[in-house]
From TrEMBL, chain A:
Residues 320-339 form the Helix-hairpin-helix DNA-binding motif class domain. GO terms for biological process: DNA repair. This is Helix-hairpin-helix motif protein. Keywords: Iron, Iron-sulfur, Metal-binding, S-adenosyl-L-methionine. It holds the Pfam family Radical_SAM. PANTHER family: ENDONUCLEASE/EXONUCLEASE/PHOSPHATASE FAMILY DOMAIN-CONTAINING PROTEIN 1, TYPE II SECRETION SYSTEM PROTEIN K. GO terms for molecular function: catalytic activity; DNA binding; iron-sulfur cluster binding; metal ion binding. InterPro entries: Aldolase_TIM, DNA_rSAM_put, Endo/Exo/Phosphatase_dom_1, Hlx-hairpin-Hlx_DNA-bd_motif, rSAM, rSAM_sf, RuvA_2-like.
TrEMBL record, chain B:
This is DUF4130 domain-containing protein. Pfam families: DUF4130 (PF13566). Residues 86-245 form the DUF4130 domain. InterPro entries: DNA_repair_put, DUF4130.
Length: 415, 247
């Protein structure tokens, strides 16, 4: 099989891996080809609208495991291919110097044994770093059950490492991945966290993970709660959520017609709230509903359940209070705080500063005044109706609203 | 009657013109800075040609950084690269503000001039950011990498300095086809030249990698999530002309 065909097979096989970030590396650079860029750079966007930053491929799609949701599982009759370390290194360098990519994202199915696979990943990255003196971004997977020694050696060459947690609960894992255990996933994760704390230049852009959404009956609360623990305990940089695309027909998997994209998006928003906005999972759900409201974003959902905390006075509220207002993000909150030093702010000022009032107006006052009279006395249900009504009025445009607001906010984190 | 200040079209030259206006206490509403190439003479104007003097430029830069900070200076530079009509007028008024308010200028969101300059700078910086990823180099028979683009704003300088750091081990040229400008890098320094036509041939090996990339690009899209609108939103059509995977 030639490289062209391998690249097609092993590129397609890696497309369900979500992460493509190339940001945050602090690895020291001395000489060689290329660089990393702290904000990350997108090099293209696929037909599904997702960014391509890294050459994302599997080393092999030949697998000894048989996970129910996975296209590459042993029992599937599909075309199989395996790269050599040399082939991956040359592809990476040649794509990089033409500015097609920011670096390499190397994952793999498990061929022969976990150690054999991990060894191949290590060899590939070693070639890139030492033979080709490649300085670009490298994200590599740690293979479950691989020896910690191999993972350690690999981590010193990579910018980011990740172990996929795959499913949000042990029960689901047992059901869909008979070959993987909770232990086999958490052990390498914990190990990477520990080494990263002790050593310099070890996965300097941090660790991430991803889980599949919608293939099992796990609730959003369970998912967000798990993420919260992963951020706290393992200091993960990101948890990625992947709406399950039905690739296998397996009775163990929940029936999915099409990937639950809106739910995936709401989870990303909730994830931002716990990671950046200091919300906790318990606070967000406060025992009421186990799942996020698909109609409004999670911050609106939370605010409507906690109307007693509003309205917030723009000219007095603390930064922490401001960022909890629906529609006010980190940037707007900072602008408000810096600007109100000069003079007290009214709604006109907010507009000029670029604060979007569409959602915020139901939750704030400026010098004691609300945006319109009687705005604040509304019942939560009425506010929700107003916020969602507008969308249904513009039915034909709903998709574009969905696209723009929904997907860019995943990237910028503004909610 | 307006006082017209002609400059050579460069950022340094513009700053020298602004320096004269500010230091001589000339009324900003009566002063106009115009590039020599664009000025159409009107006999009622008083016209003065300003020399591009690097020392004066450095003095202006120092003044801005001391009065505000280097991020404000960078904003001014980016705004100057914008293709906005009468960018000189906006930036001149912005400069007056800088010397009046100092750092505070960053938070004067309610002022129209400040807003306009912010917008110009943001537009430029966004385009630079996009081209950092969307520039496509090919390998030529002359042994160097070559990329062409047609940016809306005049961003070849910051782009070239970005790639100087990134592709530091290679010989390369970046060509702004719209403005006939080329940046050439010889593994030591970048030079900026003007040029009309470059006759180059792509190597056979490069054609192979182009094909590999195009195939890869197709292979990684998930059919069930197809969303061309979102793709175009992230990567507007004006970037497609020289984008391999979109041709």
């Amino acid at each position: 099989m030639d490289v062209l065909e391998k690249l097609e097979v092993l590129g397609a096989a890696a497309k369900y891996d979500v992460s493509c970030a190339s940001s945050g590396s602090k690895r020291e650079k001395h000489f060689g080809i290329g660089s990393t860029f702290s904000a990350g750079i997108c090099h293209s966007w696929t037909d599904d609208g997702r960014c391509i930053s890294l050459l994302k491929i599997l080393f092999t799609n030949e697998c000894i495991f048989d996970c129910a949701y996975c296209i590459n599982r042993k029992s599937n009759d599909i075309k199989r291919a395996t790269f050599t370390p040399q082939e991956v290194a040359e592809l990476t360098i040649n794509f990089y110097k033409r500015n097609y990519i920011e670096g390499l994202f190397l994952s793999s199915a498990i061929k022969n044994s976990p150690d054999w696979t991990m060894e191949m990943l290590y060899k590939t990255i070693w070639l890139l770093r030492y033979k080709y003196q490649f300085n670009g971004y490298i994200h590599v997977k740690a293979i479950p059950y691989a020896s910690l020694d191999l993972i350690r050696k690999t981590g010193f060459l990579a910018d980011r490492m990740s172990v996929n947690i795959e499913l949000p609960s042990e029960k689901s894992l047992r059901l869909l991945c008979p070959n993987k255990t909770k232990e086999s996933i958490l052990k390498p994760m914990e190990f990477i966290t520990k080494v990263a704390e002790e050593e310099k230049n070890f996965v300097s852009a941090g660790q991430s993970t991803q889980m599949i959404i919608g293939a099992t009956d796990d609730s959003d609360y369970k998912i967000i709660n798990l993420s919260q623990h992963l951020y706290k305990k393992f200091k993960l940089k990101r948890v990625y959520y992947s709406a399950y695309t039905p690739v296998n027909h397996d009775p163990r998997i929940l029936k999915v017609e099409s990937p639950p994209l809106l739910r995936e998006h709401r989870l990303y928003q909730a994830d931002w709230l716990i990671r950046v906005y200091n919300f906790s999972a318990d606070e967000l759900f406060n025992g009421k509903d186990e799942n996020l409201d698909l109609e409004v974003d999670p911050k609106v959902m939370w605010a409507l359940r906690n109307l007693d905390k509003f309205p917030i006075e723009i000219n007095k509220a603390s930064y922490e209070e401001l960022i909890r207002v629906p529609g006010i993000g980190i940037k707007s909150a900072r602008r408000i705080i810096k600007n109100r030093v000069f003079h007290s702010l009214d709604f006109e000022d907010l507009k000029k500063m670029g604060v979007v009032l569409k959602r915020a107006k139901y939750f704030i006052t400026c010098n004691g005044k609300t945006f319109e009279r009687f705005l604040i006395d509304l019942e939560p249900e009425k506010i929700k109706q107003k916020l969602t009504d507008k969308n249904s009025l513009q039915r034909p445009q709903q998709l574009s609203f969905f696209d723009r607001e929904v997907f860019t906010s995943v990237i910028t984190g503004e909610i | 009657m307006y006082k017209i200040f002609l400059y050579d079209g460069t950022f340094e030259g513009f700053m020298c013109a602004a320096f004269h206006i500010i230091s001589e206490g000339i009324d900003k509403d009566r002063a106009i800075i115009v590039s020599k190439n664009e000025y159409q003479p009107m006999f009622i104007d008083s016209v003065r040609e300003v020399q591009n003097d690097f020392k004066t430029f450095l003095e202006m830069r120092k003044g801005i950084i001391e009065k505000a900070d280097s991020s404000v200076f960078k904003k001014i530079y980016y705004a100057f690269l914008s293709d906005t009509k009468d960018k000189e007028g906006y930036i001149l008024r912005y400069l007056f503000f800088v010397f009046e308010h100092g750092k505070k200028i960053k938070y004067l969101y309610s002022d129209d001039i400040v807003n306009a300059v912010e917008k110009m700078a943001k537009n430029v910086s966004r385009e630079i950011g996009k081209y950092m990823g969307l520039m496509r180099f090919c390998e030529t028979d002359k042994g160097f990498l070559y990329a062409k683009f047609e940016p809306k704003n005049d961003i070849i300088k910051p782009i070239a300095y970005f790639f100087k750091n990134r592709l530091n081990e290679f010989y390369w040229a970046i060509h702004d086809v719209k403005r006939n400008k080329v940046a050439i890098y010889d593994r030591k320094k970048v030079q900026f030249l003007t040029c009309d036509n470059l006759k180059l041939k792509v190597t056979h090996q490069d054609e192979m990698f182009q094909m590999l990339w195009k195939n890869y690009f197709k292979a990684v899209a998930i059919e069930e999530r197809k969303n061309l609108k979102l793709q175009q939103q992230n990567m507007p059509k004006r970037y497609w002309k020289y984008l391999l995977e979109k041709n």
